[in-house]
Amino acid sequence: MTYRGTVIGLAAAAAQFLSCGGGPGQPKQLAEIPVPNNPSKFVFDIGYADQAGHYFIADRTNKSVDMFDSKTYSSIAVITGGFAGQDPGGNNDKSGPDGVVGIPGTSTLYVGDVSSVKIVDSSAKAVTKNIQITPPGSNTPSGFRADEGCYDPDDKLMMFAHPGDSTPFISWISTDTQAVVTQLALPGSMGLEQCVYDPGTKSFLINNDGTTANPDGELDVITASSVTAKTPAVKTAYALPKCSPAGLVLGPGTDVLVGCAPTSGNPLTSLILNRASGATVATVNLAGADQVAYDSSSNRYFMALRFWVDTGTSIGGSAPATSYNPILGVVDAGSHVIVAKLPAGSNDHSVAVDTSNHRVFVPHTVGIAAFPTPGITVYSSQ
Fold this sequence. Notes:
Radius of gyration: 19 Å
Number of helices: 1
CATH topology of the domain at 1-34 and 240-382: Methylamine Dehydrogenase, Chain H
Strand content: 35-45%
Distance between the termini: 34 Å
Helix content: under 10%
Number of strands: 30
Structural class: mainly beta
Shape: globular
């Protein structure tokens, strides 16, 4: 099923954004893409740009992965195939699709869903395989989602987090056999968030919402060698005080950005760490994130900050939508200086960067007067 929609230009948007300075090179708001089938409410999760001119978003409202042309912003396809959709009771852990991860240079996507990871062929615009996931030691699906994922090209492995189960766990899938090869249960974890594979240390990094030792969260490091040996284990855990980590992305050199969503009363700050040592390189005065992204072309981080408030102090994540001033935060990855704070729509927790086309995609739902209808806001990266 495909959908063609009119892209709503935002000619005056450049004057609306807040930044450290204007002029050439500053990111700005460009356009608004309507959601396929024009729903009055848009429930979505993670976005992905494949660097071949396509943007994808996990669309729970249409029970699909929506595919767009990242140059023209036109809708290419609404890819369905048994996705769970939004849970009627509003439980995100029983909803899907969730994480979307592609294998670079191919048309293959791995998409988290309820008790499964689905493989999507974007050329065929179809789900080609459903990989059932059961918790470690069980043969019965739990009914909870496979959430965010990341790809290890060295070992041809996809890693997916399962945060909703009573014991959160991680699954690794071989992209050669398209089957689960090993899993790791994390007893005591309060949940799992964005992950990334680090080719420098040949390790998987994942944000852990909290443990007894680190109740404000930690960055767990799992060596790829332990995964390929089918004995995965957390090698080390870096404490993340007052963070409640969500977003995670590799930056230049040995930097890694941890996008925080601090609990109420804590400062809205995120962390840049040395991923080899865990040492804090910089503290950034932006937070309230879920997904974060890095653009090598502009050497900038992009942070979808749905829980941002201008006071700089968190009010938590359960206040009414009108209590927040959601933004797309932009940070120079070299100097760690805030480049811009761009207005964004309600619940802007997903961000994807098309480096080759210098475009940033941030979906949103309703709830903010400046963004009255569901859509995907397009920004320039520079």
